[in-house]
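Running low. Got one?
___
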Amino acid sequence: MARKKHSTGMEEAEVDMTPMLDIVFIMLIFFIVTTSFVKESGIEVNRPKAQQASKKPSANIFIAINENGIVYMEKREVDVQRVRANVERMLAEAPEAQVMIQADKEAKHGVVVKVMDQVKAAGIDQISVSAEAN
């Protein structure tokens, strides 16, 4: 005669961890996808000093202009006329992007104004210009 084991109510309870691990991985993927990465302009410029320089929120789009008037975006040289197309492409990737122009203190004013015009034509009204605080 086979004897049945009677349940005493003290059986061990097990928690299935699989759903929790699934949620953790989904959250990890969400944070990786939604993170915006900073794209540097690619060159170091000698920024002018300013008495009233203030800290601004970090920008996503960096445009550098060296002392010879050459424009750099994403570590590559860009023609001034192509700045608008590049900014529009970056805005498609990150609609909330902000622009920071890092112009060398020896750069010609006309080149900086042309770059600012191209950025405004791309649809960005607020442009920050980088300077060193005294």
